[in-house]
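[09:14] KT: can someone run the structure on this one? pasting the chain below
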Amino acid sequence: MADGRRPQAVLFACGHNTVRSPMAESIFKYLFGNSTYAVSAGVRKGELDPFAIAVMDEIGLNIGRHKPQTFEELEDLEGLNFDVIITLTPEAHHRALELTRVLAVDVEYWPTPDPTDTQGNREQRLDAYRAVRDQLFARVKARFASEVATGNE
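[09:31] RB: done, structure tokens below
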């Protein structure tokens, strides 16, 4: 949370919950284990992207069993009881603000490129996904390391 207290629950959100937000969720869980609840959702539901699975496998993180879900599905299952919502696309940011306007939750926007737009051969496309993965890894670590690791209250 922006005030330095340790978040209890973090939501990562993007357009389809198929590339960026599952990557961020997986990275968060890898870095911080179960010390904080983390999940991801999208504005719309898509199919998990095989390039995202491949680049996460390269660093030993398996997102192959991730089941994409929408904000509404998450809200129906668990509610939107998060301390922090990290949005990775403008569409997800607007949707999160809409859904949380009466809730005490921090909504942060981290502009993150969409690697699915990349043209080229397989390696060029994978490089775009790697760049997103690495950007998210650095950002998640920088944003949450002191709060989650030390458990500042």
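[09:33] KT: thanks! Residues 9-145 form a domain with the Rossmann fold fold (CATH 3.40.50.2300).
[09:34] RB: yep, looked fine to me
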